[in-house]
Amino acid sequence: MTQVTMTVNGEAVSGDVEGRTLLVEFLREGQGMTGTHVGCDTSQCGACVVHVDGKAVKACAVLALELEGAEVTTIEGMANADGSLGTIQQAFQDHHGLQCGFCTPGMVMSAAALLKDNPSPSEAEIREYLEGNICRCTGYHNIVKAIMAASGQDVSAIAAE
Amino acid sequence: MYNFDFARPGSIDEAATALQGEEAQALGGGQTLIPTMKQRLAAPATLVSLTGIPEMQGVCLDDDGRVCIGGATPHAVVEAEAAAHFPALAALAGRIGDPAVRNRGTIGGSLANNDPSACYPAAVLGTGATIKTNTRDIAADDFFEGMFTTALHEGEIITEVRFPVPEAANYQKFVQPASRFALVGVFVAKYADGVRVAVTGASEDGVFRWSEAEAALSADFSADAIADLSVPADDMISDLHGSGAYRAHLVGVMTRRAVSAAT
Lengths: 161, 263
Prior knowledge:
The complex is a heterodimer. Chain A is 29% helix and 16% strand.
């Protein structure tokens, strides 16, 4: 076992891990932060997306020991300081961007990464960016709508399909 | 995944030493190797991460105007930093996998793995790039030795890739939508001394140059010049995503599209 230390949602955390310990295992089992989900565990579905040093990555395909000293942000870090939902989370609720909710942590983290680089994305840009996030409930339409709304764009003209 | 010892050296020399160990394996971004280890298709005793080596990161231009990319540079960085120097290469990097994969996966990892459907091998072979390792320079024409096989020796590290910038170039990828790998991908590059055409995703032998098309395009760089050319379907990959004949057909289609887009 080797000790690894990283910053998760602004707080320094450390733990003893094996070489094979994945970031998502470190977060869920080591830190008890179960907001980050394991969907496919084959880096296809994107339910485990978190930010590492500001970039979206799949936490099921990164070793914890790779991230010594890294800044990690998870879905637990997306709420406002008072515990209320963050802008993207609130938009997902307002626009019914989730049904079962399993993919939602990854969707929100991917959306946050997109909006950081592209504050006002088109529908096509959002759909392309979400290529690596799979949702089996919503048909994506309301997820796209929620992200457009979270970026401050008018979505009243987008019909529910 | 079986357990392993993990090392994250800070220099190429330290990494080369660590890779001398018994059953040691280099780890780039891990976007292929980690899933492969989860399936227990690989079980190295030691993983040597190459992501903590500053001299293997980033994009720059050398004195000859070649675009030089550090072996551990993620696809997303190539997409952003190569765009001004070599737009076709940046565009290729920006369509590998998905955004989260592009933030981790590296050019050196992709080339060392030489997946028969990966994108980067087409760019490297299609430009006649030079692969620099910790011990030597390898020409693209000597590097790819068939599906998942390269000229790299045990423990050898791709430290940099140097691309001669073409006068015109384009990469066309027919995406296999489930994996986002290329069902067929074609990189076309026009230089003062001729045109190179490299095809990925299609052949059982991995990436290859389509020399017949190169000759025709060197004489006349237009899609019409190769309208009547085709590749034989015999050695093409045949699977549930597409037959060998379908892939052979796509080679012609994607090459013509790439030429049209480059002109």
